[in-house]
Amino acid sequence: MSTELDIFLANLSLISLIAIIGVSLYGILARPNIVKKIIALTIFTDAANLLAILVGFRRPPSIPPVLLNLEPRATDIAEFSASAVDPLPQALVLTAVVIGMAVNMLIIFIALQVYRLYGTLDARKIRRLRG
Q: Is the pTM of this model over 0.70?
């Protein structure tokens, strides 16, 4: 019973994640306001990070990627490798979060400068003002 529920929840999470990615792509491509584009881009990067974490996840019962036994036997190592989650996507996502924050700050700074120069954050008006 719990495995059916686990599979259902995993599928629901994946479908929700795909829907979030679709909505954020719509916000990036279709909205003319730069602030809305920045928000949609942030949501897109967070969804992509979550997708990377889901790639490294194993079906329950899963354990953290830390072997606590100081002198593990062969059976302990086999059980650990069968149920431990993959730490590489977690490390990559941690790096991506830090880089994403820096990129978001740069984009927000550029948006502030665009507003200072043109007096608007509407990409259509900026395109017309620029010529």
A: yes
